[in-house]
């Protein structure tokens, strides 16, 4: 996704194209329970998510791993996806488990460089 968006963003925002820094993105996914609360008043409100799953997803999306790794999923998510989403032609599409520590806990996650071709 980052490889697809980066050229378009650089073309649209000339200052980014002329800069020395690189546009990059990361997606973090975690499975679990979350408490969703509407906060704010009148026309100035938003939804807030609390719990381990949204916090882990946020931490995973903050990872900057370099290369083509643009997706990280928690172990619970990895364990729940079908084998067709884990393997391609008999080869694993995921590396891990890796470890991340936050909030006094240690959590396993997996990363992938695999991309589904879209026709």
Kindly state the mean pLDDT as a whole number? Answer: 85
- Quaternary status: single chain
Sheet-strand content, in percent, reads: 35-45%
How many helical stretches?
4
Q: What is the overall shape?
A: globular
Biggest sheet record: 4 strands, mixed
Level of helix content?
25-40%
Alpha-carbon distance between the two ends: 15 Å
DSSP summary, beta strand count:
8
Order of helices and strands: HHEEEHEHEEEE
Gyration radius, to the nearest Å?
A: 17 Å
Features:
alpha+beta; two-stranded antiparallel ribbon; 8 strands; 119 residues
How are the elements arranged and paired?
Blueprint (H helix, E strand, L loop, with lengths): L1 H11 L1 H4 L9 E3 L5 E7 L2 E7 L1 H10 L9 E4 H6 L6 E2 L2 E2 L1 E9 L2 E8 L7
Parallel strand pairs: 1-4
Antiparallel strand pairs: 2-3, 4-8, 5-6, 7-8
């Amino acid at each position: 996704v980052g490889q697809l968006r980066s050229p378009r963003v650089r073309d649209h925002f000339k200052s980014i194209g002329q800069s020395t820094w690189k546009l990059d993105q990361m997606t973090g996914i975690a499975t679990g329970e979350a408490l969703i609360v509407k906060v704010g008043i009148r026309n100035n409100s938003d939804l807030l998510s609390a719990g381990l799953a949204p916090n882990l997803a946020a931490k995973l999306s903050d990872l900057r791993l370099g290369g083509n790794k643009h997706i990280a999923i928690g172990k619970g998510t990895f364990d729940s996806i079908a084998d067709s989403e884990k393997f391609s032609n008999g080869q694993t599409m995921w590396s891990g488990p890796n470890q991340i520590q936050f909030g006094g806990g240690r959590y396993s996650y997996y990363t992938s460089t695999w991309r589904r071709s879209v026709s």
